[in-house]
From TrEMBL:
Signal peptide region: none
Record-annotated GGDEF domain positions: 250-380
Catalytic activity, as annotated: 2 GTP = 3',3'-c-di-GMP + 2 diphosphate
Enzyme Commission number: 2.7.7.65
GO molecular function, one term: diguanylate cyclase activity
Swiss-Prot/TrEMBL cofactor(s): Mg(2+)
NCBIfam families: GGDEF
Pfam family, one: GGDEF
Name by which UniProt lists this protein: diguanylate cyclase
Top-level taxon: Bacteria
TM regions (residue ranges): 6-27, 59-82, 94-117, 123-144, 156-177, 189-208
Assigned keywords, A-Z: Membrane, Transmembrane, Transmembrane helix
UniProt cross-references to InterPro entries, sorted A to Z: Diguanylate_Cyclase, GGDEF_dom, Nucleotide_cyclase, Rev_trsase/Diguanyl_cyclase
Phylogenetic placement of the source organism: Bacteria, Pseudomonadati, Pseudomonadota, Gammaproteobacteria, Oceanospirillales
Organism: Kushneria konosiri
Length: 380
């Protein structure tokens, strides 16, 4: 069995290792403010552990180290919280900050009052446990509220802080309701629980940062940089995900639109003017589609739309609206106004008898018929 001094020492060493990792991350990725907060959290908890390790192994520490340890551990939680806020892009508002500062300094102030009045150290410990329960609970709440961030690694951090909250609450209840006195055995158990939780928290933070960077890269690879719509790779990934069609009650329709005589637009306005037409058209497209629909830049001036829960008749109405909207829209390029028309082909997805790529080919054929028949029309 490891003694308390050895456990405290290993806890200090692992905190030092995490602090070094965060310091490297901050140096490499200095635009990420949340990493600085988490570095601060790791540093505060390292200093707290160093103070604890430096003191002789004793269940009742003198007033100064006790105040330092309570303050540094609470500061570490406060910085964890502010780092998470920054990670999720949330504002750090005045009153929540004031509340967190009060929570951070309360155990150290309570320590000063209790020791100077010669009261039991259990009162301070209970106050610390309650403040730490609240801070851990707030952190779990922040993670649960940020569910739109689809990151698996944040679950690890939420589990670790839930475990912290429960352990602190249990500690406070035991002190208040059973008058239990801290012993070497309970101190050893709390250091072990803390060691497990702190490792999960910091590994979780590092993984969250990496997981988000990977998701961002994947999103970039799936997106057309000019228009912000999906590119071919992105849409193929979604359409080949069986969950996409499985989640729909009705049929899906494919609409492909190609801007007419775009070469002339480029020849008249230059390539940059052509780009403005493409981005303006993409903006119009986004405004007419529903959240469940998908829009893709299929080729140079060719756009593909996947209309969820839409049969052929509804797709025809949508395509006609899109054609009219494009024809009526005044595209503004460097003070000039130009008109553009679009030819459109439609096909309804028939998942029993053909693949999605075959449906796209049918829509493409319809589009070329629209071009052949004079452009600025809808064919199916
Ligand atoms: N500005 C700009 N032009 C592009 C881009 N991608 C492709 N194009 C241009 O789009 C034009 C497409 O020309 P064509 O395929 O001949 O078709 P079109 O002139 O639109 O004629 P129809 O489709 O038959 O009506 C070419 O001049 C390409 O250079 C782009 O990202 N930006």
């Amino acid at each position: 069995m490891l003694d308390l001094a050895t456990l405290n020492f290993s806890s200090t060493v692992s905190r030092g290792a995490f602090m070094a990792v965060f310091a490297i991350l901050v140096l490499r990725e200095h635009d990420k403010a949340y990493l600085r907060h988490w570095l601060g959290a790791a540093l505060a908890s390292l200093l707290g552990a160093m103070v604890l390790t430096h003191e002789p192994t004793n269940l009742t520490l003198p007033i100064l180290p006790s105040m330092q340890i309570f303050f540094l551990y609470m500061l570490s939680m406060a910085l964890s919280w502010s780092g998470l806020k920054r990670f999720y892009g949330l504002d750090l508002r005045f009153w929540p900050i004031v509340a967190m500062v009060l929570l951070t300094i309360s155990p150290a102030l309570a320590c000063l009052l209790v020791y100077s009045h010669g009261l039991s150290s259990n009162i301070v410990l209970t106050i610390y446990f309650l403040c730490a329960t609240t801070a851990s609970g707030v952190i779990v709440f922040e993670i649960l509220m940020a569910r739109r961030e689809d990151l698996w690694s944040q679950i690890v951090v939420a589990v670790a802080f839930s475990s912290y909250a429960l352990s602190f609450l249990l500690g406070a209840c035991l002190l208040v309701f059973t008058q239990m006195q801290p012993s070497m055995e309970t101190a050893r158990i709390s250091v072990i629980i803390d060691q497990i939780n702190i490792t999960l928290v910091y590994v979780g933070y590092i993984a969250m940062s990496g997981e988000r960077a990977n998701l961002k890269l994947r999103r970039q690879a799936d997106t057309d940089p000019l228009t912000g719509l999906f590119n071919r790779r992105g849409i193929q990934r979604i359409l080949h995900d069986s969950r996409y069609f499985g989640s729909q009650d009705k049929t899906t329709s494919i609409v492909i639109g190609d801007l007419d005589h775009f070469k002339t637009v480029n020849d008249t306005l230059g390539h940059e003017g052509g780009d403005v037409v493409l981005t303006t058209f993409a903006g119009c497209l986004k405004s007419v589609l529903r959240r469940s629909d998908l829009a893709v830049r299929w080729g140079g001036e060719e756009f593909l739309m996947v209309l969820a829960n839409t049969d052929l008749d509804e797709a025809k109405k949508f395509a006609e609206r899109l054609r009219e909207m494009t024809e009526r829209h005044d595209f503004q390029i460097c003070g000039d106004q130009i008109s553009v028309t679009i030819s459109i082909g439609i096909a309804e997805v028939n998942p029993e008898s053909e693949s999605i790529n075959e449906t796209i080919q049918r829509a493409d054929k319809a589009l070329y018929r629209a071009k052949r028949e004079g452009r600025n029309r809808v064919c199916y």
